[in-house]
Amino acid sequence: MSLPETVRITEIRRETRSISTFVLDAEIAQSEPGQFIMLWLPGLDEKPMSIACPSPLSVVVDRVGPFTMALHERRVGSLVGWRGPYGRGFRLAEEGPALLVSGGCGVGPMVYLAARASEQGIPTTVALGARSTAALPCASEFQALGANLVLATDDGSDGYHGYVTDAVRELGLIDARPTVYACGPEPMLVAVHRLCLEARIGGQISVERYMKCGFGICGQCALDGLLVCQDGPVFDVQELDGVRDFGHAHRSATGRRLPLR
Ligand SMILES: Cc1cc2nc3c(=O)[nH]c(=O)nc-3n(C[C@H](O)[C@H](O)[C@H](O)COP(=O)(O)OP(=O)(O)OC[C@H]3O[C@@H](n4cnc5c(N)ncnc54)[C@H](O)[C@@H]3O)c2cc1C
Ligand code: FES
Fold first, then answer.
1. Which among 57, 64, 206, 254 is the best mutation to test ligand 1's pocket, defined by most ligand atoms within 8 Å of the CB?
2. Same domain, 80 and 104
3. Which end of the chain has fewer CB within 10 Å, C or N?
4. Would residue 92 count as lying in a domain?
């Protein structure tokens, strides 16, 4: 384990009303899309954030609570700390097309994965879901990477009217039997999991659990017998088959097992 390195924020790009990309004066020599860092706000806390770009190191952060709100109040030039990378990332299949399914703040690792797929010449479709058009992050980044972008909004203000997983099914996005890569809210991940099993196609799913150490010693991120920070956060669809807590329960900061809302 490394101690956090303290660096300055060099750029902040507003993606939506609540989501911004934070670019740090740092780079990660070796990492995989889907891996994460522990981001530290001195005097406040340290939280897991997926790598959206390794060089310069960038994270896409949704403002949801005390830590992320405090980060959103930081300005270019502010100091933050980071350590990592941690966890097991996505492993791009060499054969066939890729379908990236993303919702909410799950978009960060997908930007990195789409960039890696583009470097490797893998035909990529990105299915991006949000509540409304104003909440769709990073669409232009995916387009600039040459991905085929399919939008879905809950209110129908842009693209498909409904959940992104219904768009995937109804618009025939799995007809070409792509490998599916997903990151986002757990109900969306459960739907992707079911879809991959039913269609018998390969899939990898990035799961979130409350994390403290980030590298396998505290046990906080337990998902049945798995540690999300070390065995994941990216799991093959088959690895999640039969995992009782997936889609059902998570652990609070004190380790209490609670139902997923
Ligand atoms: C591997 C991984 C990668 C992540 N990547 C991103 C990302 O790229 N962008 C992004 O915006 N968010 C990401 N998150 C979620 C992010 O860590 C939480 O949103 C953040 O910690 C919320 O803290 P808060 O104080 O702002 O909100 P809170 O009000 O404390 O919590 C809001 C939500 O975040 C969860 N959360 C709080 N603390 C933690 C923690 N230590 N570990 C995990 N979840 C926590 C809570 O359970 C709750 O669901 C990731 C989480 C994990 C596990
Ligand atoms: S966060 Fe400590 S074991 Fe996973």
1. 64
2. no
3. C
4. no
